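Changelog excerpt

This revision adds worked examples to the README so contributors can see how folded entries look when concatenated. The first example is reproduced verbatim below.
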Amino acid sequence: MGRQLTLPGSHRWDGGPDTGHDALRAYPEVEPNVISKRAREIGLSGELLVMSKLIRIGFTVLQPPDHLPHDLMMVWENRLLRVQVKSTTRPYDGAYRFNMSKGYRNNPLGTRPYERCDYDLAALVILPEECVFFTAERRERHCLPVSVIAQLRAHPTHSLFEALSELRQTPS
């Protein structure tokens, strides 16, 4: 009988030099510079949390190609809705803040506002609390007080169905 080959990365970590893969292991108790350096992983975590929550309540969710201005798509009432996910990791002055802009600081194009046609719903993720607030309201910035966490936990789908109701009343 032949010997089973091990896959790279499948062996137990031996405590050797930090390769950077476990920089987020202590999340959310990590330094702000780690959050900044790992922004892609933080963003992806938020997107996957939104996908998980939507799928668990029966929605079909799709991941569009990276070059599009929205992060997810979901099927609702025979419509394909574009969902923009924004994640935050800690409150500032008693509130979680979300800047609704595309691009990033060191991008050659910089940051810029979303066009009206870029997304239909915003999913605002408070990552350390694993809470999501959905809104169809268009703003440059959204601000959620820390006190909203209890409401989001008690009624996790309320903001989603309110936002969908608002979209129902808005012509496509």
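The second example, added in the same revision:
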Amino acid sequence: MDIFTVKGMLDKRFYLTPKNIQSYLSESPYHDGEKIFAICPYCHNPIQIVLATRTNQGKATGRYYAKHIKQNLDGFPAVNDSKYHHCLLRKKSKLFVKQALFQDLDLKSINYLRLQKALSYLLGFYISIPFTKYLTNYNKRILYLKGIDQYNIPFAILINAPEITLKGRKIANRLLAKNINEYSKSFFVNSNHQVN
């Protein structure tokens, strides 16, 4: 990994350059004697900054890289194993991980109205709350996919969703309705914005 972040600026990412290391990581808790630490910008777990050196035609060259560490460090957030396994910046990456990001996810605690609005926006047509609940139950496995987090669950639900028919659906997106009427040979959108 060649990027890092620091406490208080978790939404920003910095490249591993000598200038950025000097600017952001030169004091405690980031600089601990010989070792330099930072925070992973994706999973917010501690990472160690390492200088890899090699000899190229008799000349020593170096490149910084970062690697996750699995121990808690003073002054850093506690290591979150679940987020670590889901981290896209992790070196040994697998498509599926052993534990869900939200191990204690209670399907009753999901804000289905908010999820319904997000899915309707992404699809371009309205879906009902019962259908949103069906998609969520159908897609429990997606929580074990690497890289799934609270921000991209609606996308993951749609990627793994069973086929969804258009017939009878109310279109939410005017451009989609226009394109269906202009280009579709099988469907048209009526005055009530429903697909027939």
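Reviewer comment on example two: The first strand starts at residue 3 and ends at 4. The radius of gyration is 23 Å.
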